[in-house]
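Hi there. Long-time user, first ticket. I'm pasting a complex I've been working with (about 298 residues overall). I'd like to know whether the download I got is complete or cut off, because the file seemed smaller than I expected. Thanks.
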Amino acid sequence: MNSAVQSHKDTAGATIGMWLFLFTEILLFGGIFMLYAVFRAKHGGEFHKAAEELNRFAGAANTVILLTSSLTMALALAAIRKGDKTLSLVLQGLTILLACVFLAIKYIEWSAKIDHGIYPDSPVLLNLPKGEILFYGLYFVMTGLHGLHVIIGLGVLTFMFSATGKGKINSNDFVGLENSGLYWHFVDMVWVYLFPLFYLVT
Amino acid sequence: MREDLRKQEGSGYAAYILIWLILLGLTVVTVTVSRLSLGSTGAVISLAIASLKAGLILLFFMHLRHEGRLLKGIFLIPIVLISLIIGFTFLDVWYR
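Hi, the file is complete. Here it is re-exported in full:
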C-alpha cells in the first residue's frame, strides 16, 4: 500500500475508468448486434443457409482457445498477486500464444472465404440472395472488429509481459495487468456471443 | 488495507479452473443444441447459454462480484440501454 501512496496511484479509479471504457465497447458492439437482430428476423432462412457455409469446427476451436486464454489471463493475475513472477510470466506468455493461434485460425477462415470469391462487395457475393449478402457483410464487420480487438489485446498483453519482466508489475502494483485482463475477458465475452450467432444459426 | 483486500480476492487457482471447465461444458451444450434444429427456440436457447457464459466471465474472471455497489450499479446502465435500443428497434421493425 505504501508504494501505491508514494506513486500517487489511484487503483480504484483506474479500475472504474477501465470499466467505463468497456461500457462504451458494449455499446459499440451492441449497435451492430442490433443490426444483426433485425436482419436475421427478416431473413432467417437465408441467414441459416449462409451460416452453413462457415467452418463450425474452426469457430468452436476458436471458442475453446479464447476461453482458455481467459483462464490463463485470470491465473496470471492471481499469480502476480501472490508474488509468483515466474508463474505469472509463463501464464501471460501462454495467453499471448493462444491469442496468436486464434488470429491464425481467423486468417485461415477469412482466406478460405476470400478464395471462394466471398468478400464485401465481391461479384460472387452480390449475386447471392439479399439475406446472404447481409449475413456475410455482418460476418466480416463483426469478426473483423473483434479480430481488431484481439490484435490490440495482443499488443497490450505483450507490453504487460515486458512490464512484469522488468518488475514494474508486481504483487504491490498490478492494476495495469488487472485492467489488461478486464479488456481481454471482454474480448472473450464478445466472441461467446459471436460464435452461436454466426456459426450455429438454426 | 484496500490493497491487502484486493490481493486476497479470488486468489484461488482452483476456482478459476472450475469456471473454465463449466464454460467449456456450456460450449459443448450450445453446439449440441444447435444440431437439434429447433428453429427460433434454438436461437433463444443459444443466446441464453451465451448470456450465462458472459455472466460467469463477468462475475468470476472479471471479479465483478467483488466490486462495490457503485460499479455494479453503473454496470446496469449500458446493459439496460442496449436492451432498450435493441428491443424497441425490434418492435418497430416487427410491427411496421
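A couple of notes from our side: Helices of chain B lie at 2-8, 13-35, 40-61, 69-94. The longest helix of chain B spans residues 69-94.
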